Amino acid sequence: MSPLNRPPVLDPVVNDFVVKFANVNGSGSASANSMFAKAIFRMGIPVSPRNIFPSNIQGLPTWYEVRVSEAGYLGRRGGQVEIMVSVNPQSMAQDVNEVCPGGYFFYDNTYPLDFKLIRDDIHYIGLPLTDITNSNFTNPRQRQLFKNIIYVGALAYLIGIEFEALESIVNDTFKSKPKLIPANLQALQLGFDEAKADIEQPLPLQLKRLNKNEGKILLEGNAACGLGAVYGGATVAAWYPITPSTSVAEAYERYANKYRVDPDTGKHNFAVIQAEDELSAIGMVIGANWNGARSFTATSGPGVSLMNEFLGLAYFAEIPTVLIDVQRVGPSTGMPTRTQQSDVTAAAYASHGDTKNVLLFPATPKECFELTADAFDIAERLQTPVIMLTDLDLGMNEHICDALEWDDNREYDRGKVYSAEDLEKMERFGRYLDTDNDGITYRTIPGRHPEKGMFFTRGTSRDEYAVYTEKGEEYEKNMHRLERKWATAPKHIPKPIVHTRSEQASIGIIHFGTSKEATHEAIDRLAEQGHQINDLRVLAFPFHAEVDEFIAAHEQVFVVEQNRDGQLRNLLITELEIDPAKLIKTVHFNGDPISARVITSLIAERLPQDAAASNEKQSNAK
Amino acid sequence: MSFYKPKFRHPESPKNELGLTQTPYEGPISTLCAGCGHDSISAAIVQAVWGLNVEPHRVAKMSGIGCSSKSPAYFLNKAHGFNSVHGRMPSVTTGANVSNHELLYIGVSGDGDTASIGMGQFAHVMRRNLNMTYIVENNGCYGLTKGQDSATADEGSKSKKGRINPFEAIDLVALALDLGATFVARSFSGDKEQLVPLLQAAMSHKGFALIDVVSPCVTFNNHAGSTKSYDYTREHVQAGAVVDFVPVEQEITLQQDIGSTKDVPLFDGASVRLSKLNQEYDPTSRRAAVTTLMNHKAEGKLLTGLIYVDPEADNFQEMLNTSATPLNELGKDTLCPGSSALDDINQGFR
Fold it and tell me: Which terminus of chain B is more exposed, N or C, with fewer CB under 10 A?
């Protein structure tokens, strides 16, 4: 390096920094990077990895950002990174600028570094990755793959990843292909030894074993949704491929193949149908649910747009329907591989006429699992579409969460369904008779009784006996009953989670889904500045009374979300008739997961500078 | 429309093997125009299902939107029906069928519902060989919106307002042959003797069965110059192979035919009996079917009857390899892997 290169040296840090990998899409880096993150997880240290990838199969730049946080902050930190592992010449100019002063730029020095990439304030660590792979491996594909494993080995030396953790992952990963184990271990060792030989001492950024991941798992939200559908008793999955939801259907199929194939007959107790488009996918789901099977689809924003007509049918004809929307950046095709929470409005009111849909907002893979399973109970209990809104960040990245749990005593709630025996005792069956006065009526499953229980399902208006009618009063009566059902809905959907840090606090935050981690971290940062803030995380729509109460209990309520227009805020204003001035739009929507830094600064700029003094004044006034 | 449907039936109406007369297979009065071809088809469906000895409640009546799609409300009153959205009946039927393969699925659609808005779903349900009978009540026009041409209107056909259709017609039979449908037939609503056995054969077929039924619209498309009128159809129809449906171990001959006959066995032991008229016709050859269809078209003739059948092809349920017990009857014990399996799964995420 240039003799002028005298970068600042970072103070020693343990378990609190960000490492970013800059790779070429399709070069096999994903498994090496995931091995890196998992090793840190196995060392008991809180870690949150995120893929930042293009809509491309091979060749374009892709990144993998890993945050290590002893304090357990799992949201994206934001800002520059401490270590950049650069193995993609295409993006080097951009990558070098993302390193914080005093940070490290790790690169392959088989080829000389362009002088334009030299900064005075960062450290450069060059290792001859290409040379090492070429002299140790002959197969071209192996050379490409092992180059990635070698830099993981080098990092083990540089930041103190326990070699045993890496070894255990290699052993687990290749359990079914043990022939691959020695070569992977060799590659790790090569990287470790080379780094040790070339670089005098490890970096001031170090990992130290903790015990914070006891009882935790590292899992992608989409896999958790697929598994939740298996546990929730779904038998028919109909879907159309779309990023970022594809892996939901794939996970369902994978687990179903493992747990739903009859060992004696080899027959499947499930069906996965790749439909010709999203319209057909949701149509199949509605047909299957109508006929008494639990069925779901998974899609993203463009798919939800296409499914609008059918969602209106399911709402109006009252057919249980489960839809998992893994949100990505809109409008239109938007940025298909970037994250957003921007389908709230579209999902809540999907379809023409007075249509409203139940929404669920998971924030962790564990909630993806639980709420997917719950969604089938809710949909059948309420006989209406239930749309679960996850997002790309949650769905396609691994997140630490508590281990999944299942209560074997749990029964599926199939809702109000008359059996053949029930029908036998009955004078006349009325599909839309509100006998329990909760807006939810009894349905029947086709083919179960020879004389009774038949009705004609339709999207046109009908009377209580499902007979077609164009009488205004019958139509209104039915629409009012649907309103009554909507009012019943909160009893059957998950309540919001409220964190009251101070009864006196005048500031509140409302958030949902993947804004959770960054919001909680921002609240800690703001507390350090003297602001006491309570928060409420919405888990479902329609809103519970608790949401209204929370808003009433605070003078200022920031609504944190990842879209431009403040869609949750708008929904709160519309549905709860809240004074818009009271709800402050706090949004981030550039496609990167929201970070605590963004939230902290958006909120801090709206709060009085001398917060501690102001807080005191307020509490005196009370 | 008619305003009164007499309840009186002959006291000694014939009964089927279930001991039922046709009455339990009927529906309420139709609200379609008096003389509508669709009502004849409804009557043929009643007769066909009755004759097959299927319990009325074991049928699912599926439809989309349009005049044709209303008709399931007018037959088989004891069966569940699903009047879905425009052009989307195939997907709803696919989901329903996968959920419970044991019901008899009768889909009723129209030319707008199938050949225009529903073209995509129509194509794909055939590719999947879903076990259903798909009836297109084809009148070449949009009745409910007052007679616009549909995509099956023939080029050169004159609309009621006098406009000559400049567009090539979509031939649903040709399309079905091309896309792999395993039972393809055409009929005419005015020819119940042909339609009833064709319906029975279609309903007994274990895969996807299309019957494209020319069903004139008496209000908007029954005038001189229209190629979908009663008169035009009667003049140009040519029954390729007259069909008789022969149930298992029982021969019911609905029509006496002259000449040689040929039986095509269906999967369950029943068979379709073909009375060959002018030609040696092999309905199990897709290639022959396409050629015959094209030859008739070139001569300005409307080929009806059973045009193609492949009785052996795997249907969608067989491709999916789903359980013999319908999926909608499986309970928690079969479906939920339980907490101990979840412990293993969790272990894989550590």
Answer: N
